[in-house]
Design brief:
Subcellular location: Secreted
Catalytic activity: Endohydrolysis of (1->4)-beta-D-glucosidic linkages in cellulose, lichenin and cereal beta-D-glucans
Keywords: Glycosidase, Hydrolase, Secreted, Signal
CATH topology: TIM Barrel
Strand order of the largest sheet: 5-7-8-11-12-13-14-15
Distance between the termini: 25 Å
Largest sheet: 8 strands, parallel, barrel
Strand content: 15-25%
CATH architecture: Alpha-Beta Barrel
Radius of gyration: 19 Å
Family: Belongs to the glycosyl hydrolase 5 (cellulase A) family.
CATH superfamily: Glycosidases
EC number: 3.2.1.4
CATH class: Alpha Beta
Helix content: 25-40%
Number of domains: 1
Number of strands: 15
């Protein structure tokens, strides 16, 4: 999401206030300690407090420490491009082709391993956590068949993009992936870094390719693993975004990972509603295995950031992805909505249903969608999808289950 708890790691300087759902306190926290208007700093555990509209109950797991150097030798500079305008397009613009009327995937994003982003490498159970297996098993039992596991590149390879793995972090990440895939679901590896490493835009494409080759080798034999090149590139040179996606594909295939799908993401936070204004050059991406899926994100609040529980209208879901549907079909591509959510209210519920109905009606080009977001530390987060009591889960589970494969 555009404004997530990761935001502070990518800033060039300290924020005066932490944004919605951002970190605002905890041992060794050096960032903002107050929240924007409408949010209060809520204690989650000794190492993590969060800007929330209401109090959240802390949830922790067993604590395991990781130990690696923090310094990075990769030095890059940020290239900023203008953001696309956020105009919506009519759902009628997308014409339905021969579609099965059934989604291939429906799942839930899993956050936690990317938390505590101002403390590297951090300690499991203090600065970050991993998804809860029991919660994911509940969802798998209800028909959800995909989980997008967010993690931090800086924790996986603490020194440089081409450096060695942190063994403990890799072990925990792999245990999560294996749990998901052994249960019969798909696990998306999501480096939740916004095209950056230690806050700097990644411009070393050769190093990025090597990073992906090294990562993909760990999972090359698991056909239920999916590789997501990076979460939500933004404010970057558009050709660089194209090149980073392409070298990621090249690196993954060079690792011998030839059976897996690769999810590519676009600039401007990979938004579906701005895709045809920003990311049309990504049509030229190539994969010898022909298993590219274009991952787009779509929120339904006024600025599309996913920071408000208020949706623009009851029809905004289908409207905001219509132009992307037409683009996918015109170019013979397949896509997935890798993040979507709406507030726990009737207007948003209708908008979410409209979005899912649109995906299902256009399943010749849309493979599915993933709700944002699950994970054990979300507390009372407006979109939290953690069984049994997450706000989004309790309000939307009965609806989303109608769309499971």
């Amino acid at each position: 999401m555009k404004s997530s708890i990761l935001a502070t790691v990518f800033a060039t300087g300290a924020f005066a206030q932490s944004g919605a759902w951002g970190q605002c306190g905890g041992i060794n926290h050096s960032g903002a300690t107050t929240c924007v208007s409408g949010y209060s700093c809520v204690y989650v555990n000794d190492w993590y407090s969060q800007c929330q509209p209401s109090a959240a109950a802390p949830t922790t797991t067993a604590k395991t420490t990781t130990s690696s150097a923090v310094a990075t030798t990769l030095k890059t500079s940020t290239t900023t491009t203008a953001k696309a305008s956020s105009t919506t397009s009519s759902a009628a613009a997308a014409t339905t082709s021969a579609a099965s009327g059934k989604l291939k995937w429906l799942g839930v994003n899993q956050s936690g391993a990317e938390f505590g982003n101002d403390v590297f490498p951090g300690t499991w159970g203090k600065h970050f956590t991993f998804p809860d297996n029991a919660a994911m098993q509940t969802l798998i039992g209800q028909g959800y068949n995909m989980f997008r596991v967010a993690f931090s590149m800086e924790r996986l390879t603490p020194n440089t993009l081409t450096g060695a793995f942190d063994a403990a972090y890799l072990k925990n990440l792999t245990a999560t992936v294996n749990y998901i895939t052994n249960a019969g679901a798909y696990a998306i590896l999501d480096p939740h870094n916004f095209g950056r490493f230690y806050g700097n835009v990644i411009t070393d494409t050769a190093a990025f390719q090597t990073w992906w080759t090294n990562v993909a080798k760990q999972y090359a034999s698991n056909s239920k693993v999916i590789f997501d090149t990076n979460n939500e590139y933004h404010d970057m040179d558009q050709t660089l975004v194209l090149n980073l996606n392409q070298v990621a594909i090249n690196g993954i295939r060079a690792a011998g990972a030839t059976s897996q799908y690769i999810f590519v993401e676009g600039n401007s936070y990979s938004g579906a509603w701005t895709w045809t204004q920003v990311n049309t050059n990504l049509v030229s991406l190539t994969d010898p295995q022909n298993k590219i899926v274009y991952e787009m994100h779509q929120y339904l609040d006024s600025d599309g950031s996913g920071t408000s529980a208020t949706c623009v209208s009851s029809t905004i879901g289908a409207e905001r992805i219509a132009s992307a549907t037409a683009w996918l079909r015109a170019n013979g591509k397949q896509g997935i909505i890798g993040e979507f959510a709406g507030g726990a209210n009737s207007v948003c519920q209708a908008a979410v249903k409209g979005l899912l109905d649109h995906l299902k009606a256009n399943s010749d080009v849309w493979t599915g969608g993933l709700w944002w977001g699950g994970g054990p530390w979300w507390g009372d987060y407006i979109f939290g999808y953690e069984p049994p009591s997450g706000t989004g889960y309790t309000y939307y589970n009965s609806l989303l289950r109608n769309y499971t494969p």
